[in-house]
Write a sequence for this structure.
């Protein structure tokens, strides 16, 4: 490894490690929820799976739209336009508040979605109770997400780790008290799990407000020194970049939710096994996702400084690191799949099916890591519209039809997971090709312009 690669790997890793740890802590919340509810019963576990498939999908869309903040801030910082950062972030906060309100309303009307999807009748009321409780925390989550993305954009990622730790600790304590009952409170089951999640979201927002008030790096931007009203011009710029990101994430999360609904029609055991498999996949996904976020910042900073070759180099290094990690995870999950399933539940039928599904989780690790890292690199270029079209093709023209036709086949729960592998692989190939082609073309155009200017002189 040459000196340049070593230097960039250190810079990328230093930026990414707190993000990776934070992502794992956030994933740990889902892990804790699944473990604790799994001890209550398979119907409750299935209800949490259904509820998660709705609120996490909508939350990821909102957070995806807000992800325009990070590359925008990184690019302004790379260009030395520090005075422009605060107005952008303030509009991001307004946007987070608006998106939080919309998701809040949507979650409180989820029953009809479950009924139309044909979900098992015993699962629906429990899932709705869970979603009603979670909905109260969503506005806080998305406002906190805007503050987090600002922090990432100025390359201050350590606070992200500590705030995520706060969220996990609050969730564990809240689940213990509210799911099973303690201190005179009755056991609330799935509803208690949702209440604990919402409380954790508000605590994370409070933690971010504390960071903004005590950290010199954050306070220097004077984010709360005055009140800025919504500005359509700046909001439109964020939406122009962020909406394609949000829809890309929605399409990806949506295909996983669609698979959950398809399996929900098979029965509670299939849904519970899917929840175990998807939780494991989500946990391993957090590492390349953290690398992708760091790659967005590193590529965006290079773009702001006008160094296109460096942007390309940084993007591909992030992609390589993601592939390396996910290859290791693929081997680990395949070898230990039955042991992993047994950690989540003691139900033998759920363990058997979950172990089966985990072999497919192992198989799609590399494609999953590659597509999220390439997506992060493209966001650093502020290239979001063509990647949206690519994701649409991969997940909804390839994966969904395959999942739809395979669910009622003899493959059973395995069929939709094979469809996910196909979709993720197509997405990985297309997004990596797009980053390579886009940066190559941009560098070529810059060299041509410089040559023309030199000839005129």
């Amino acid at each position: 490894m040459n000196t340049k690669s070593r230097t960039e790997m250190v810079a990328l890793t230093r930026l990414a490690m707190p993000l990776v740890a934070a992502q794992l802590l956030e994933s740990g919340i889902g892990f804790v929820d699944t473990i604790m509810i799994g001890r209550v019963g398979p119907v409750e576990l299935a209800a949490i799976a259904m509820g998660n498939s709705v609120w996490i999908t909508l939350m990821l869309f909102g957070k995806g739209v807000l992800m325009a903040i990070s590359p925008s801030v990184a690019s302004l910082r790379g260009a030395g336009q520090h005075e422009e950062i605060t107005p952008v972030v303030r509009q991001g906060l307004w946007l987070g508040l608006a998106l939080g309100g919309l998701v809040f309303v949507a979650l409180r009307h989820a029953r009809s979605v479950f009924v139309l999807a044909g979900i098992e009748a015993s699962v629906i009321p429990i899932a709705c109770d869970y979603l009603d409780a979670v909905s109260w925390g969503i506005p806080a989550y998305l406002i906190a997400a805007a503050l987090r993305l600002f922090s990432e954009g100025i390359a201050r990622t350590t606070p992200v780790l500590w705030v995520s730790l706060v969220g996990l600790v609050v969730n564990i304590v809240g689940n213990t008290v509210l799911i099973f009952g303690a201190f005179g409170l009755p056991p609330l089951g799935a509803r208690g799990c949702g209440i604990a999640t919402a409380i954790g979201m508000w605590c994370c927002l409070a933690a971010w407000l504390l960071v903004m008030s005590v950290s010199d790096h954050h306070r220097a931007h004077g984010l709360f020194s005055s009140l800025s009203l919504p500005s359509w011009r700046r909001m439109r710029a964020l939406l122009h970049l962020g909406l394609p990101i949000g829809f890309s994430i929605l399409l990806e999360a949506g295909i996983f939710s669609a698979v959950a609904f398809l399996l929900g029609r098979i029965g509670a055991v299939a849904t519970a096994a899917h929840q175990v498999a998807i939780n494991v996949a989500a946990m391993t996904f957090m590492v390349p996702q953290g690398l992708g976020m760091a790659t967005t910042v590193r590529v965006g900073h290079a773009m702001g400084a006008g160094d296109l070759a460096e942007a390309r180099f940084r993007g591909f290094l992030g992609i390589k690191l993601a592939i390396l990690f996910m290859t290791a995870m693929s081997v680990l999950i395949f070898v230990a799949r039955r042991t992993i399933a047994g950690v989540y539940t003691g139900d033998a039928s759920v363990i058997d099916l979950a172990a089966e599904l985990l072999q497919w989780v192992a198989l799609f690790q590399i494609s999953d890591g590659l597509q999220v890292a390439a997506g992060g690199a493209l966001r650093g270029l502020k290239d979001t519209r063509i990647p949206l079209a690519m994701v649409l093709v991969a997940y909804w023209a390839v994966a969904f039809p395959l999942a739809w036709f395979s669910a009622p086949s003899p493959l059973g729960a395995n069929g939709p997971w094979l469809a996910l592998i196909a979709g993720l692989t197509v997405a990985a190939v297309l997004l990596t090709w797009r980053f390579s082609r886009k940066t190559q073309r941009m560098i070529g155009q810059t060299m041509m312009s410089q040559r023309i200017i030199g000839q005129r002189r």
Remarks:
- The chain has one domain: 3-451.
- Residues 3-451 form one domain.
- The two ends are 40 Å apart (CA to CA).
